[in-house]
């Protein structure tokens, strides 16, 4: 069964850090670019970051540039999102997505940043 599972979310104070993981099962991640998205209450889902198949190319939303870092460990079939200098406005459910012949989404992990 093709699945993605996010983990690593939690409650953190502003200025703190979290590392999110996106683990794949049922398929091999290294064939695909992977994206991280987030959705805050009452807002639309937005793209946060993405990484190419090779891991050489990465992109970030302006709101997280310089604070978040995406990486991948294909040996572990996992993509990570290191989040530093967290702000209350980063509070959201974070999702990862792989596009194979269709979009595969995880169920999300909650990140809450207190001021």
Rg over CA atoms, rounded to whole Å, is 13 Å
Order of helices and strands: EEEEEEEEEEE
Structural class label: mainly beta
Rough shape?
globular
Q: What percentage of the residues does DSSP assign to strands (E)?
A: over 45%
Task: Please report the distance between the alpha carbons of the first and last residues.
Answer: 40 Å
What's the average pLDDT? 96
- Strand count: 11
**Secondary structure tally, helices:** 0
Percent of residues in helical segments? under 10%
Poorly predicted parts: none
* Major β-sheet profile: 7 strands, mixed
Task: Explain what this protein looks like in three dimensions.
- It is a single chain.
- Strand 4 (34-39) and strand 5 form a beta hairpin.
- Helices cover 0% and strands 53% of the residues.
- Strands 2, 4, 5, 6, 9, 10 and 11 form a seven-stranded mixed beta sheet that branches. It has a four-stranded antiparallel beta sheet with strand order 1-3-8-7, with no helix packed on it.
- The chain has strands spanning 3-7, 10-13, 18-25, 34-39, 46-51, 58-60, 68-73, 78-83, 92-99, 103-105, 109-114.
- It is globular, with a radius of gyration of 13 Å.
- The chain is mainly beta.
């Amino acid at each position: 069964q093709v699945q993605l599972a996010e983990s690593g979310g939690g409650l953190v104070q502003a200025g703190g850090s979290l590392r999110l993981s996106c683990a794949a099962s049922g398929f091999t991640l290294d064939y695909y670019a992977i994206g991280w998205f987030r959705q805050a209450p009452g807002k639309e889902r937005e793209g946060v970051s993405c990484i190419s198949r090779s891991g050489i190319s990465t992109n970030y939303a302006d709101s997280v540039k310089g604070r978040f870092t995406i990486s991948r460990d294909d040996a572990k079939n996992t993509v990570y999102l290191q989040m530093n200098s967290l702000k209350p406005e980063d509070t959201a459910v974070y999702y990862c997505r792989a596009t194979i012949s269709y979009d595969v989404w995880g169920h999300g992990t909650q990140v809450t940043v207190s001021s």
